[in-house]
Request: fold
Amino acid sequence: MYTKWGKADCSERIADGILSVSTPSHGGFILSSKMNESVPEYMRSEDRHYEEDCEWCFVVFAFPDFFSESVREQAKETMKYWYPSEYERAFGVSLKPGESYMKDYNDEMQRNKDKFIVVSAV
Reply:
């Protein structure tokens, strides 16, 4: 099968309409159109593909009954770290400084939007 990440090496059916796929370079979940409609709009991928590094957390959040407690906890932490706005909306909380890398990063960029920021890796 072909995915947006390339030809799938393997796939696993998690549930009707939820497929986990792996390619030589990447992978993630692919949802049927019907299942994708059940993902909250503010988390939904238009192309029904949710990559394995970060976006997978939206599938687990939308369909928790198909995943273990530990996977649900990992998904919650992934969402908090990488998608703080979605996390705050989903769980009805406001993250404090230090609770989310991306929120802290975005806040720092906003505070310094009129300044030059230099990043270097040596």
